Amino acid sequence: MNEQEFQISSFCGLKEISKQTCSSCGRKRMYFCYDCRSYMPSTLSLVPTVELPYKIDIIKHRNEKNGKSTALHCLLLAPLSTTVYDAPKVPDYSSIVGEKIVFYPSVKAKSIEEFLNDNGKIDRFVFLDATWFQVGGLLQLPEVQNLPHVKLNSYKTLYWRPQVYEYLATAEAVYYAVREAYQHDSKIPYDGRFDNLLFWFFYFRGMVNSSLIEKNFKNRISSKV
Q: What does pTM read for this prediction?
């Protein structure tokens, strides 16, 4: 998919915002404080909120920088459904009611459609916010070791930083997982209701020099080659 295929709310007013002092940590931030994970006052009325039919847990690797993590986009845009945990402090999933899965394309992973056909439902998605070199450590956490794995259909990332086409940013992975599960559960054509999960993703993408994005895309090597 390309950017034009998403139904993203207007960015009107965001470019007029200047840096403000975060009331929690005292640091200067533009739109939100990525350390305190909260909006600046002038931003709140300018951004959408997304309601999700599933719980989203994102386990963040300690070496993932808050300022670069798209996991925080999901937390800000879908706050009633999303929780971000800083590893190794994660919940005991054996005590949480409902069908829980880890999003990770391991050899034992089922597609979302296959998992839903076999198990009936997904109540909670668990995502691992880490590089491919770091994710192995998160998979070894005792709390997630026994959770089943699911994977997405094939998508190409629109992330502006250099990486393999099939390596999605966390916000993209959350979006596509929710969309695939919802389309399977609802049995109706998708109407764009979750597209604003990528609101901040596309806003910041638009701030990157287009020639740099084009250069990075040309330099990518598909993992299937």
A: 0.90
| Domains of the chain with bracketed CATH | 12-47 (no CATH), 48-223 (3.40.1280)
| Tokens matching residue 101 | 């899965």
Q: pLDDT tens for residues 91-124?
A: 999 999 999 999 999 999 999 999 999 999 999 9
Number of continuous H segments (helices) and E segments (strands) in the chain: 6, 10
Strand segments, DSSP code E, in the chain are: 20-21, 28-29, 32-33, 38-39, 55-60, 82-86, 100-103, 110-111, 124-129, 149-151
Nearest to 136 by CA among 74, 170, 90, 87: 87
Q: What is the DSSP letter of 147?
A: S
- Pick from 204, 216, 152: nearest CA to 179: 152
